[in-house]
Every structure is written in C-alpha cells, then in structure tokens.
Amino acid sequence: MKPTTLYHPINEFEFFYESIGINYHKINGFLPPNKFFLSEDSRVLNAAFAFSGFGFPWNRLGELYREEISIFSKNPSELSRKLHGFKDYGFGSVTVIGICLVFPYVLNGETELGNEISALFDDLGKLFVDFDLLNCVEGNVDAWIEVCRKIKVFYDLGCEKGKMGELMGKRKSIFLEYPEEVLVNKVEFFCRLSVNKSDVGLLILERPEILDFDLEDQMISVLGLLKHFGMNTKELKSISEKYPYVLGRHKMVNLPHVMRALDLQEWFFNKMRSGKHHLLCTCVVGNEDKMYWRHGALM
Q: Model pTM?
C-alpha cells in the first residue's frame, strides 16, 4: 500500500503580503487561518487594487495593512470615493498618498475618529494650501511621506490637531530644510527635561533655529551656563553648596540630566520658551575650565 501523500497547497496570501512590502519573517502574523487562496477572501486583493489604481506604490501597501488592517476589508468603491474626497482639500494624488501612508487612520473614518480626522485635514489644508507648501515639495511619494512624518512628530508629542496649521505654516522651513532625524533628536533632547511634551513641540515650532544648534558635543560648565542664563551670585552659591556633585564640565547632551538633578528643568525650559534659547550656542569652555562667551569673559 502506497503512503498517503499530504496535500500542501501554495499559500497565495504569503506571496501577496510579501509583494505589498510586509517582511517575509513577519508574514505568519497576518495570514488568515485555514485559507490559502486569495479567492477565499478577495476583499484584501480588491482593496489593494483600489489603492494601486489611485497611484499608491504596490510595495508600500504593506505599511497601510500593518497599521490599519480593517481598511482592506472595505469596499473598493468606498475607498476610491474617500481618496478622491481628500483631493477636495486642494491636494494632489501624490500628497493624498503621502498623508494616508503616514496617517492611515484617515481611511477608516469611523464616527469616533471623525472630528480628529477633520481637525487633521484642517491643519494640513492651512499648511499645504494656504501657506503653499504644495509647491515647495517634490511631486513624488517619498518626498510627501517625509514631510508628513515630520508633521506627525508634533502630533505624537500631543500638539492638538486643528490648532497647529497656521503655526506650522509660518514655520514651514522645518518641514522643508531639516531631516527627520535632526527634528527627532532635538525633540528628544528637550523631552529629557521631563516637561510637557506638547510644550516641547511648541518650542520647536516657535524657535525653529534650535534645529541648527549643536546640542550634543559642545562642552558646558554648569555654573557658567547658569550665570549665562541670568542666575545671580547668591543663587549660584546656593547651587554650589547644595549640588556640588553635579557641577563641573559636561557635554551639552547631558544638560537635561543636569537640569533635572538640580531641579531646574522647568526654569531652564521656560528660558527657552521666553527667547533665551540663543544663549545655548553663545558659550564655550576654555582650557582652564572657565566658561567664556564669544562677546566677552564670564569670570
């Protein structure tokens, strides 16, 4: 008697998920149970065709799928109608694609998200159309994804959607001239002060020149910096007596930790918000462990 040959059909979903950009090693987490052929659940393929027909790069659809799987169960005509509706804000197709890939929840549109989505598009309308960012960005998907990812940094900090469009528009150089990595590094620096994260976002938007500062390798003297920012002799003496273990020379990257150790993080951050941020880049430490300004000596 011949041994029974087990039937192992090729799983078409594996090939499909890999083709839309899902990492092969993570595909098993997305496979539908007990289904092997796309004809058994054609919704996901039909949705992919709707996105591709609008202009989405096929190999980037996995980004949508990973973030909002439910999108791919929607009717293709509903998806197409929603995508074309976004163009009513004055955006081109490539801009809409960039928005959707970075903010995929806009394609869900459930009632509980309706106000948030509307607020987001109000902001984007001001930034892209009213402040003419549309004509400042290259007309390709990657360029718009980069812009939208930088916008998302501020929303992730807690900046309120619907109230940021004008401020972002006035500071559109942030989204055009600086790499995302630079923006994120500066945000992380100030977040290490343990202040309100949305205030960090507002600081960057209000004082975008901070993005040009070296907040990593520059050397600082703690007492010198405190005096530089306006602390008087009596206050400096008190700091010296109370926190001698914190004083000395540090790299600028350690400044948030130093300010928290001195319990001065709010004081320092308020100096940044009030316009004293430029003092961060007007001082250096000399060989004798004294701090000097470019316009004169401290001691």
A: 0.88
| pLDDT at residue number 16 | 86
- What are the residue boundaries of the structural domains of the chain, listed by start? 9-89, 102-212, 219-297
Give the list of residues 6+ apart from residue 125 with CB closer than 8 angstroms, or none.
Answer: 89, 90, 165
Confidence of residue 248 (pLDDT cuts 50, 70, 90): confident
Strand partners, 221: 249
Confidence of residue 26 (pLDDT cuts 50, 70, 90): confident
Burial of 271: CB neighbours in 10 Å, binned 0-12, 13-18, 19+: middle
Torsion on CA atoms 99, 54, 62, 109, rounded to nearest 10? 50
**Rounded CA separation 54/145 (Å):** 16
pLDDT of residue 177: 96
Residue type present at position 221: S
**Phi and psi (nearest 5°) for 4?**
-70, 130
Q: Using CB atoms within 10 Å of the CB of residue 222, give its burial: 0 to 12 exposed, 13 to 18 middle, 19+ buried.
A: buried
The radius of gyration of the chain from alpha carbons, rounded to an integer in Å, stands at 26
